[in-house]
Amino acid sequence: MQLRIPGPTPVPDSILKSMTKQMIDHRGPEFVEMLNKVTDTLKKIYQTKGDIFLLTGSGTGGMEAAVVNTLSPGDKVLVVSNGAFGDRFGNIAQAFGAQVERLNLEWGKAVDPQQVRQALSKDGGIKAVLVTHNETSTGITNDLGAISAVVREYDKVLIVDAISSLGAIDLPTDKWGCDIVVTGSQKSWMTPPGLAMVSVSERAWKANAQAKMPRFYWDFSKAKKFLEKGQTPWTPAVSTIYALAKALEIFEKEGLNNIVARHVRVGTKAREGVKSLGLSLYADENYASNTVTAINVPEGVDAKKLLKILREEYNTVLSGGQQKLDGKIFRIGHLGYVNERDIDITLKSIKAALPKARMAG
Amino acid sequence: MQLRIPGPTPVPDSILKSMTKQMIDHRGPEFVEMLNKVTDTLKKIYQTKGDIFLLTGSGTGGMEAAVVNTLSPGDKVLVVSNGAFGDRFGNIAQAFGAQVERLNLEWGKAVDPQQVRQALSKDGGIKAVLVTHNETSTGITNDLGAISAVVREYDKVLIVDAISSLGAIDLPTDKWGCDIVVTGSQKSWMTPPGLAMVSVSERAWKANAQAKMPRFYWDFSKAKKFLEKGQTPWTPAVSTIYALAKALEIFEKEGLNNIVARHVRVGTKAREGVKSLGLSLYADENYASNTVTAINVPEGVDAKKLLKILREEYNTVLSGGQQKLDGKIFRIGHLGYVNERDIDITLKSIKAALPKARMAG
Questions:
Q1: Hey, what domains does chain B have and what are their CATH numbers?
Q2: Backbone angles phi, psi at A133, to 5 degrees
Q3: Over the stretch B145-178, which tens digit does the pLDDT of each residue have?
Q4: Does A9 contact B at CB distance below 8 Å?
Q5: Interchain proximity B61–A25, CB inside 8 Å
Q6: Does the beta-carbon distance from B238 to A17 stay under 8 Å?
Q7: Cβ distance of A25 and B64 shorter than 8 Å
Q8: Cβ neighbours of A186 in B, within 8 Å
Q9: Which of chain A's residues have a Cβ under 8 Å away from the Cβ of B233?
């Protein structure tokens, strides 16, 4: 099976096997050692001296945690969105009573940092900026370096959804001044879903001290108190942490630079290959994501039929389009446990399946 | 290693092995089939015709979900507490703005349903009752049948923390009229931590339609919408669901009545054994839990030293006391994958370790 969706991503056998380890006491010394080691390694990949917490939940849980730990109801936030996940970030902030100013930009194009600047200069009351690093729904990687520079200039709290970027695309958290950065275990981390990871800067802690949105399960101050003794406030997903611990060993062996370079190669290969099949890319190629490629469904092809044929006849699982892109694009996920050979196989399957997916008539 | 804490509980090898299965698309047909099957089997054990949702999170996340899906800020709730987890339920409701009336009863004793009746008859403004079925911190099983009868009489929404009871202690959800019942995968379910399961009654849905507490990740209406197509709104903990699916096969083979009877035998054996060692039980034996036994630390014994010796010299991991019981009790967890032989081994270890844990002087 070629599972080439943007998460859950394939998990190497050695990591799957790590989950056959028996349960341990999450208040005992063995757990403390594991959690501290995982946290320390994550800090290197995040490139941060800030805090890192493992939260038992999905990436969306991590996004909710970022919001409720930083803001108060009525706080004005700028949500920069050019896709479904940017929209989701705004919906979360809204659900918890933030005053959400949405900078809704064109899907498939990168965010122009100048538009962020304009929005911030126009409205001094904005407290935080919520931004998606890699927009999984469209296959765009926003220029977070440039966006963060603008946000730093205006001294706002910067909350980043890096769920499908971190660990595959370079994100120097401290250098760029990102205050909260959220990722999820089932993306580049080669680990099953069930854990969200978040970094928390000094500036985020200052916001946290003022933040009045209700929180209990996601409360960072509880997480910090428990992490000081190498624990989590609530029973953590022990097996998934076994998997993440093993994955981080593999990460350290390959090295972050090599991992990022591999994703560049794989992403480039996917885009070149797609074009060589006569297909067109949905996203602006100058900002094309190296973790997910979105492809326009060619005229006369039924997207659902294509995905079904790929799944049933070619053992290849790809993703469709979300929301307004449903039926219009399909997506190849290429993050985590992936190499150029995987892309070759996927492209071959697409090439063979396409003619069969033509609509009748 | 004898892991005898009240969760995470030991996981049988066949269940651990089920987690070596490769990832699948959580929007694909294989996942749909698995989730529907798990949900249907859970309904039998819950003894409910209501909805059941799998939430990626710990049991505490499930408790938070129950609260925020049912209540509005300012709603008055009665929190019946006779231990640390009852207190936690109140703290969650309070964090989200409920007006919390705490019926704080003696720890180590069962809740007297008459006191619940008094509290409800005194204050007609109470909207919901939050109660702990099995108080893990003290080793008491409250008489939920009798308590629920009172709550039904007053027609309040009944939210039950059954995290350390359901699947080991009988809890006929519909018969008792429990509106939301929360449990966690790492307890009687022989599954690693990372999933909370909740049932939702018609009455709970009516409350949900009025409930204004902010929610996004835990939102039951989103969960229901996605469950209709056999999915979850957010990427679920796929591997942990593999484990739960396998565990439920084992559940079905043994049968709920046999499982409950086994826990009665194991619980009885633990209590008798503890007493035969000259130790005394912390909890009222008439309501002693069949999933966890709390034991008074005998005079002259250092609890921390006892647990350390048990862990390091006898490969036996037990739990200490929580909060005000720290240093005063220790606890044996006996739920899930446990039989009488396990209790024998544990008791033998305690007997051998006790003299070594006497304080100097």
A1: 15-253 (3.40.640.10), 255-357 (3.90.1150.10)
A2: -70, -60
A3: 999 999 999 999 999 999 999 999 999 999 999 9
A4: yes
A5: no
A6: no
A7: no
A8: 23, 235, 238
A9: 60
B16 touches chain A (CB under 8 A): yes
Q: Which residues contact A178 (CB under 8 A, 6 or more apart)?
A: A144, A148, A158, A160, A171, A199, A201
Contact A58 B56 (CB under 8 A): yes
* Pairs across A and B, CB distance < 8 A: 189
Return the structure tokens found at B162. 């059954």
pTM: 0.98
- Return the residue of B nearest to A333 by Cα: B25
- Tokens for A84, please give them: 């479904």
φ, ψ of residue B84 in degrees (nearest 5): -65, -35
Shortest CB distance from B11 goes to which of A17, A23, A27? A23
Distance CA B270, CA B225 (A): 44
List, in sequence order, every beta strand (DSSP E) within chain B: 2-3, 51-56, 76-81, 99-104, 126-132, 134-135, 140-141, 157-161, 180-184, 195-200, 292-296, 316-317, 319-320, 329-333
Please, which residues bridge with residue A76 across strands? Answer: A99, A126
pLDDT tens sequence for chain A (361 residues): 899 999 999 999 999 999 999 999 999 999 999 999 999 999 999 999 999 999 999 999 999 999 999 999 999 999 999 999 999 999 999 999 999 999 999 999 999 999 999 999 999 999 999 999 999 999 999 999 999 999 999 999 999 999 999 999 999 999 999 999 999 999 999 999 999 999 999 999 999 999 999 999 999 999 999 999 999 999 999 999 999 999 999 999 999 999 999 999 999 999 999 999 999 999 999 999 999 999 999 999 999 999 999 999 999 999 999 999 999 999 999 999 999 999 999 999 999 999 999 877 5
Indicate the residue of B22, B64, B193 with minimum beta-carbon distance to A11.
B22
Pairwise CB contact (< 8 Å): B235 & A20: no
